[in-house]
Design goal:
By secondary structure, this protein is an alpha/beta fold. The chain has twelve helices and eight strands. Helix content is 47%, strand content 15%.
Length: 295
């Protein structure tokens, strides 16, 4: 996928986000395709084409992945995956994501005591879920966050606050190459995993590693994550760690929802979380042969 295609998908995303927000706010009225398209100032046919270019399926097909019933179904499946992982360890299918993402973690104290200056190259890059900021070190990816036009400067401020002694160098070209690997249609390559460099307490790292074990197309609850991290009573603390995730997507905090199946509490916007989950669910269904696409 070219940089131009990424830019087009990023622009498409913001229109689709508005459409989904309108659909959610007016779900009792069950607005049709004409009403949704009119809301974002497009014809029905233009919106249909735009949506299928972004999602790979039609708005009607996509809508099923946004329902509460679907989320509840995936919660049950996700709990089963984590239970299996606890019993069988790395051989479990539930740990598949581990093969694609590896960790190098330091505690805040260790980072401070080492005293060496860390260089972080960063860049703003368009993605299928809007513009993001990617931060890279020689030891791995240390930051990935989304932003909107009005908050474009906020991610760099947060990056600098998270790594106060680091030297920040803008390198959007390098960031773009890595983002293309993350979003490539063929999927991730087990032989060349993404390496992350994160800073956190032992508990934070345990939670983030638990998140990495959740396969795409699956959802789990905050309670499940706390249990899998070895602290079943620390649900609120685990939720706080999920919310503080420094590397979106690769540490898939978006796959954690409430026990009731509600999708919210995403630091980069609930609608973005909803759309990431739905798109992942569609891709997983297509890969497993459960989905038959229509025009």
């Amino acid at each position: 996928m070219t940089g131009k295609e990424f830019s087009e998908l990023s622009q498409d995303y913001y229109r689709i986000e508005k459409a989904i927000s309108y659909l959610e706010e007016n779900y009792l009225l069950q607005p049709d395709l004409d009403a949704i398209a009119e809301r974002i100032h497009l014809s029905k046919y233009h919106f249909h084409r735009l949506f299928k270019r972004w999602a790979g399926i039609t708005p009607i097909q996509f809508q099923k992945y946004l329902t509460l019933d679907y989320a509840k179904k995936k919660l049950l499946e996700g709990r089963s995956v984590l239970d299996t992982t606890l019993e069988t360890g790395l051989s479990s299918p539930g740990r598949l994501h581990d093969l694609f993402v590896s960790f190098d973690a330091v505690t805040p104290g260790e980072y401070k005591s080492r005293g060496a200056v860390l260089t972080i190259e960063y860049g703003y890059v368009p993605t299928p879920f809007g513009s993001c900021l990617l931060g890279i070190t020689t030891r791995g990816i240390c930051h990935l966050s989304f932003h909107d036009a009005e908050t474009a400067s906020a991610p760099v401020v947060l990056l600098r606050k998270s790594w106060p002694s680091a030297e920040l160098l803008e390198n959007s070209s390098k960031a773009g190459v890595i983002l293309q690997e993350i979003f490539k249609p063929a999927g991730w390559n087990e032989a060349e995993p993404f390496h992350l460099y994160v800073k956190g307490t032992n508990f934070q790292v345990k939670v983030w590693k638990a998140l990495v074990s959740i396969p795409a197309g699956t959802m789990v609850s905050y309670k499940d994550v706390a249990a899998y991290s070895g602290s079943p009573r620390s649900v609120r603390a685990a939720a706080g760690v999920v919310a503080a995730n420094p590397v979106a997507l690769l540490i898939p905090c978006h796959r954690v929802i409430t026990a009731a199946g509600k999708i919210h509490r995403y630091r980069w916007g609930a609608e973005r979380k909803r759309l990431i989950l739905a798109r992942e669910a569609f891709v997983a269904a297509r890969s497993s042969g459960e989905l038959y696409e229509t025009a």
